[in-house]
User: Which sequence fits this backbone?
């Protein structure tokens, strides 16, 4: 999975903010709760103890106890205050290098996809036809799709976007058009 660092870690080794890597493994916390779904899908609840990354910049690296050509990034603590309340957050200083939601993906096709095609309890139906299309169309083949739960036929009958979703999409399209127009004006010196 592609991963982008969001802070400088080892600048001299080219492990820096905005560098792209491939995540080749994680070190799960052995104390974490683990849920197993449909064979080879495991969800670890809790923060990982580290993430193993590789890129062309790490090709010559060799560190003990991790695969050659990789580097280990450890979680770190961040302290911050919002509206007078003090918080601490532990997390890895990286984010997925692409975005996939049930409404949009960044033109990515995935070799293996785990999907939850079932209604949520709030609406008692699938959120939208766009959601179904995006989720199902990201897989390279039907054989690569794994379902987290069995689907219910009623969830797929009369699937259509809600009025709120239609309005939200229209608003986003309007804002997108405005942003593009402003950018073009700046590019043309106006």
Assistant:
């Amino acid at each position: 999975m592609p991963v982008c660092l969001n802070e400088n870690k080892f600048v001299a080794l080219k492990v820096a903010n905005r560098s792209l890597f491939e995540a080749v493994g994680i070190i799960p916390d052995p104390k974490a709760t683990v849920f197993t779904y449909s064979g080879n899908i495991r969800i670890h609840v809790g923060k990982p103890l580290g993430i193993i990354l590789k890129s062309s910049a790490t090709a010559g690296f060799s560190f003990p106890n991790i695969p050659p050509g990789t580097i280990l990034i450890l979680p770190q603590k961040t302290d911050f205050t919002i509206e007078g309340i003090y918080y601490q957050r532990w997390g890895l200083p990286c984010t997925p290098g692409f975005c996939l939601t049930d409404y949009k993906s960044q033109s990515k096709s995935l070799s293996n996809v785990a999907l939850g095609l079932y209604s949520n309890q709030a609406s008692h139906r699938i959120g939208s036809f766009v959601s179904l299309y995006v989720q199902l169309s990201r897989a390279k083949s039907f054989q690569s799709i794994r379902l987290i739960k069995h689907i219910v036929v009623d969830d797929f009958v009369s699937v259509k976007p809600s009025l709120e979703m239609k309005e939200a999409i229209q608003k986003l399209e309007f804002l997108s058009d405005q942003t593009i127009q402003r950018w073009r004006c700046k590019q043309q010196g106006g």
About this structure: Residues 163-187 form the longest helix (25 residues). Residues 41 and 169 are 33 Å apart (CA to CA). The radius of gyration is 21 Å.
